[in-house]
Amino acid sequence: MLQIDRLSIGRGDRVLFAGLSVALQPGELLHVRGANGCGKTSLLEAIAGLRRCAQGGIRSTPDELARHWIGHRNALSPSLTPRENLQFWAGLNGADTGAADEVLAAVGLGAGVRRRAVRSLSAGQKRRSALARLLLQPRPLWLLDEPLDGLDADGIALIAGLLRDHLHGGGGVIMTSHQPLPAGLPAVRELALDRAGQP
Amino acid sequence: MSAVAALLRREAWLAARSRSDWLMPPFFLVVVVTLFGLGAEPNDPRLARFAPAILWVANLLAALLTLERLFRADHEDGTLEQMVLSPLPLYLVAACKLLSHWLLTGLPLVLLSAPLGAMLGLDTAAVVALVAGLVLGTPCISAVGGFVAALTVGLPRAGLLLPVLVLPLIVPVVIFGAGAVRSAQQGLPVDAPLYFLAAILAVCVTLVPWVCSAALRNAVD
Predict the structure, then answer these.
(1) Where does this protein chiefly localize (chain B) (predicted)?
(2) What are A59-77's pLDDT values in tens digits?
(3) How far apart are CA A45 and CA A70, in angstroms?
(4) Can you give the CATH number for the domain in which A21 is found?
(5) Is residue A108 situated within a structural domain?
(6) Are the beta carbons of A88 and B3 separated by less than 8 Å?
């Protein structure tokens, strides 16, 4: 599904990665671990297509649009409601705008929350709204940067369910998390980066 | 097409929630032009002579008020990253943002400028030239300002940098725009300065969305 060959990424004068090679198979979750600043987010950004690679390459079976990217920032306009934000993302990506309510309900956001401005929501509710984008349209590869941040126990269990369903459906996930991964996820593989950005 | 509609609809939603953002430029224009009127001697004929420059500079400064935030909010909350990854080409995203800026800021300024011009003593022919010039010139201000806003979106204190970079670039627009009004005041043809404004607008429409998209992609990288 995804093949990374001898990937090198730099930030300024610093080399974050040199010679990183890893593959992801369908139905597999790659958990990228490492200390702060070791380049976990940069790796995901490079796979998403947001960051240039200094050397090496990333090859994927589906085309580049067939991946979801949920970064540190939630990509939600604070003055709009979660529903309006999701309707916008659905429209921009050619998905069904009418599905916004349904996917927000699927991540546990009730009708009252869906009609409030994002700026008035808690961090966990904002994170759930951002993760609801994963359900707007099916894409085989999910790239998730600290997706569990701000979520309570119910939220983590809910996201674990989404991950399980996606993996069982043959999708792939690459995610970073400082928290322990929820139990019961199939085919989890660890990728530990040290401080020098080496696997 | 639905992606473009979604983008324009979102801009309308954002404008409806942040009324101060689009009410501020017209308010600024009215206050500045009125202060010139109040500061001059009553019925001073020199006011009409300076009116083209007053109105064009006030329009330019009013339009600059909201340009800094054109891409900044999207950059800060991560929306820009997602736009870069969306199937809609980034130059179309930039074009929609620039169009919405002109509709929400430039167009109200154009509409307000006609009565303000009359208030400063412009005759009918001069007011028509003023409006025609602004119709062609304010989209250029949105485009050039949007380009600079895209270039500086990742920089701290870009709000201070933006006018310094935009004002020199927009000098030809002000020269031809105010020149058209002066020509009308003197009974001369206004075609030439308006054609020059139209040419500048054509260049802006053709090039700016592409250079904006390159600047935005660079800001995300």
Answers:
(1) membrane
(2) 877 665 588 999 989 999 9
(3) 10
(4) 3.40.50.300
(5) yes
(6) no
